[in-house]
Amino acid sequence: MSKMNKSWGPLHPAVEKTDRLAKTDLSGERQRELYGYLKLNRMTEDRLSNLYRQNKVVGGLYSSRGQEAVSVGSAYALGPDDVVGPLIRNLGTYFVRGVKPREIMMQYMARADGPTGGKDVNTHFGDLSRGLVAPISMLGSLIPVMAGVALAGRMQGKSLVAMTYIGDGGTSTGDFHEGLNFAAVLDVPLILIVENNGYAYSTPISKQMKIKSLVVRASAYGIAGESVDGNDVLAVYEATRKAVERGRNGGGPTLIEARTFRMKGHAEHDDAGYVPKELFEEWKEKDPIDRFERHLLAEGLATQEDLDAITAQIDEELNREVDAALASPFPPPERAFEGVYAVEESV
Amino acid sequence: MSKMNKSWGPLHPAVEKTDRLAKTDLSGERQRELYGYLKLNRMTEDRLSNLYRQNKVVGGLYSSRGQEAVSVGSAYALGPDDVVGPLIRNLGTYFVRGVKPREIMMQYMARADGPTGGKDVNTHFGDLSRGLVAPISMLGSLIPVMAGVALAGRMQGKSLVAMTYIGDGGTSTGDFHEGLNFAAVLDVPLILIVENNGYAYSTPISKQMKIKSLVVRASAYGIAGESVDGNDVLAVYEATRKAVERGRNGGGPTLIEARTFRMKGHAEHDDAGYVPKELFEEWKEKDPIDRFERHLLAEGLATQEDLDAITAQIDEELNREVDAALASPFPPPERAFEGVYAVEESV
Amino acid sequence: MAPITYIEAIRQALWEEMESDERVFMIGQDIGTYGGAFRATAGMLDRFGPKRIIDSPISESAMVGTAIGAAMMGLRPVVEMQFIDFIACAWNQLFNFAGPNHYRWGQSVPLVVRGPSGGGVRGSNFHSQNPESVFQHGPGLKIVVPGTAADARGLLKSAIRDLNPVLFFEHKFLYRRPQLKQEMPEGDGLVPIGKANLARVGRDLSVVTYGAMLHVALEAAGRLEADGIDLEVLDLRTIKPLDEEAVLATVRKTGRAIVLTEEQITGSVAGDVSARIAEKAFAWLDSPVVRLCCPDTPIPYSPTLEDAYLPNVDKLVAKVRELASY
Amino acid sequence: MAPITYIEAIRQALWEEMESDERVFMIGQDIGTYGGAFRATAGMLDRFGPKRIIDSPISESAMVGTAIGAAMMGLRPVVEMQFIDFIACAWNQLFNFAGPNHYRWGQSVPLVVRGPSGGGVRGSNFHSQNPESVFQHGPGLKIVVPGTAADARGLLKSAIRDLNPVLFFEHKFLYRRPQLKQEMPEGDGLVPIGKANLARVGRDLSVVTYGAMLHVALEAAGRLEADGIDLEVLDLRTIKPLDEEAVLATVRKTGRAIVLTEEQITGSVAGDVSARIAEKAFAWLDSPVVRLCCPDTPIPYSPTLEDAYLPNVDKLVAKVRELASY
Ligand SMILES: Cc1ncc(C[n+]2csc(CCOP(=O)(O)OP(=O)(O)O)c2C)c(N)n1
Ligand SMILES: Cc1ncc(C[n+]2csc(CCOP(=O)(O)OP(=O)(O)O)c2C)c(N)n1
Ligand SMILES: [Mg+2]
Ligand SMILES: [Mg+2]
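^ thats the input. predicted complex w/ thiamine diphosphate below
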């Protein structure tokens, strides 16, 4: 275990503890908005944990605690016509795209009024009117699919970019390779955020790959690549913004490695006993929300009262959201048999 | 077409026309043996073309003309206990492993006495007693399989290395990625010869990938990589020899890109009209056998008479081989129903 | 218009759909400059340009994945597998992504994956497969298996216009058979997906079949006339959703059924059809429902072996005689 | 010895085979330090070390490919799929490489791929699948689906000792059911692959089933006693090669059959079994051969939906009553 720890450590370029975040042109107002999404992400997950403990969540529960800056920062750089395919740990992305917490809650609780009406679970839903494509569980599969979204956008004369995510573990799938190479050779505007949080379930990256940073994979496909501090929401935002620009200008795909850490287990049931305690302690110091808070205060972009007000407002909103979600019934059994085939156009 | 040609040209680092081949410690005798394999490879394929024109070949016929140095040079660097999984264009590899031309001929002609008794086609056969694993048609699939061979060798305390091949086109498969990454992370002695011959069927590498040389893929997995002149049998041999040494000493996998050119169509039926004529002319000058011949003569390792004698001897051998192959009947129909399940140990 | 072959009919369908609907585009290996390994897309690169005729890397999973993404965005991708056997490398994308998508979150995935399937051409195990047997289980997929030139054209057009993922399995043995040359109907000549065709009306025994085996059945029917046995031949044309009504109707009429298909027998489409008959037309049955398929072996290469492996007219005639006297 | 659960029986089989045969080793995601998502390999890393308990990258195709290579070299790899659904990503390696290998060139590929399959645990479409339906068509593969703890242990040991590629589909709904706790037999307690088990002797109607549905059948049988209906229950245990003799024997005895399986009905194992009955036991049949399966939809998540989707005791009892009065 301590060997694993050691071998993992150096593979994972240290993320600065410092509060000095990446340079940005984002206004104070927009930075406060970013803060709101970060908090909404975390606070919704806290509510979900409660619901889980109350046995209201039907299946497993997955948390993005400690990684919120990756989802929020990257999604915030997209435009309204862009399309994103988030994974299970990208709650923040859903929120930035306009999804309401009750939608996620109803998904987890398998309720009739959730976006899939109880047919599928957690973040497994999409909605192209909000630029969202649903994942499937098989990791990697979304990468070629989102390459196809990007290709379609270009063929349709839209200037959209497509974005999706993959974990350090998910980079070992065949679809990661085929999808990225395909996107590269077609030069389509695909952004792949590689969320390197050090672990795939219990597996440290030292057992996942022999390389020290995933950004070298970009050169294997001849595409742009950047590695950023994934716990700095501004760094993630800025890297994605540049990638969006590149994509819109015909510069092809970008791979962004966001270095971060998974602060809970793989899922709610997993106590992550295999992760050395010191790592949690180390990364707690680098908490993306705490850091961003300190940044906002230090830069005079928000007062403590502003932040408290944002938090209080989210808290209130979440009360309503939880109530609404709980009020939704389970779907009627007949619905199980409906909707296998499309009979009318979805788009 | 000429655009394709242009875009392809610079992607493919020019192979020197020069007769100065790579440095080697191989004795004159062993170099003459190498020469024999090169000639056997080419002359067998010429015989196969004849058989094809006589409608004796049941399915398609694939040629490695112009690429013989890759198969022969790499296979020649292996030891008797090493294991290799060749593809359809690696006839030379089979010969170096001790396969007789009649075996290949009977495979192509679907005869009862061929290694698969008519069950499978062309080079689709293996024989672990000669260190040969059969491919399947799905490109890339052999890479993880050969990683498994290498892993088994290590677990069994053997010091074997495993080797296999992939074309420039085959590098786009998911299994290329999964297999190489797997081999890398397990640090097993796998050698992957990437046979970059500029085309996959009619598809130039510019439509296959966005990178200029495949050797960069080695760094994507953290393994050793080298790019060699694939029309210099000594260069291929030496690179493979070093990789074998590395593998035996626990240094893990090696990716070797061999730059070469496919001098015929994808298969006998394909006139390769999509390949600009100048490319054929250019590469004819770099013919690996002609170059090696000039080298042997220039270095005083063989006289023209020596070479002619080798050729004559192979010619005679091939007469016997063709006769033997033609003498074999088609298999009896009942054999179609036998052998799905193993009932006794193969190894 | 002059009669054309099965493969020409496919090319025509593709060409016409490309002309009439700019959302249609193609992805495949060597489909551009080369015009496809079987020339199904010959001339299309010149006519439609590289944006709509995309020469692909050897990445079947990405080809299908990309098509899924483009389809969700409102395009109509058609993916060519160089040989349909390579669809195995895209199994996950089709079975898990494309098929279930509409059920899961309401988003349609209108795409076609097409390519040459089937044996009888000495292609050995990786260039002769019939993947309908394994894909039939996949919820949300449609599977089409034309047996004639006009059906190939009409069904391919329907497939491209369908809102769902359609697997279109052409039989390469039929591609250039001169006997299959047919005049194409005026206009689109659309053939609906999900509708079987009564290829021969008969009295005594129903042969339910599709693809290359359709012609085996028809030839056998001719031969059996001499015996005074009058075969009815139902060409399924679509495997999923299956035209169960047509299957049951013919069996209820003749009381005897042979399901004739070119696939290994276990887990076959033939088994599935046969099970439906045994469950839903039991009262009408005068004899066992017989599956005439291939043995449970890989597809062998040698002519003597492949001939032993494949169903053929002799084998069918023998089975019919056996069953007729049951 | 104390009775143990189904998952403990699996762990025991793995453990014992690892102890007794040093050629056996395992590849899987999180099977080492973590002991496997379902703890099937708990403690094994400590006991057998990282050379034989290999924590794998997320590369199902490479996991299987690597196992194929190692198996050809004489080892006995056991691959764990974290959820069996992910076997989809290794489809090509299993269907095209492992299965046909011995037929093609005579080289055996003794490996096992095992993992949790099946629904009823609110896993939704990608954590509930039953892949036996699609793999049954693959020449050269064997498929095992234990329904009891002792069978799980005995069959897994047989699978590991088999010379062929064996897909071992465990039913995760059964993993920790206290009702399934069983004392293990002395010694190896090997259960032969390819042999069904007559789980209940009855007179009136045969239910042919396996896996979690075995217990549905047995419970229904108990309930139907009150009706005076005496069910015979055949547990297939192996899907491929199927124990056709046992299937035909029970149907010839009772004259009525329901094939009960947890899979979408089209292209199901149930259909295959049913087709064999309709072909080979026709003369003994007193009523239609009925398949009781799931509808042709993806597997839904919500409890109300999944309950509607899955076969259960009520549905079986109703079908039996219907059929008994046919
Ligand atoms: C193809 C595939 N294999 C296995 C799994 C099971 N699985 C779910 S999440 C996970 C770990 C993922 O790790 P990583 O990609 O690093 O993402 P993270 O959980 O760290 O966000 C695994 C193995 C899967 N979802 N898909
Ligand atoms: C997975 C897969 N897809 C498609 C094919 C069909 N195919 C056979 S050879 C070939 C081209 C291979 O090109 P390359 O890998 O460069 O090898 P080369 O023929 O140049 O030696 C293709 C597309 C295949 N064999 N496998
Ligand atoms: Mg991770
Ligand atoms: Mg090539």
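Strands of chain B lie at 83-85, 162-167, 190-196, 199-200, 203-204, 224-229, 254-259.
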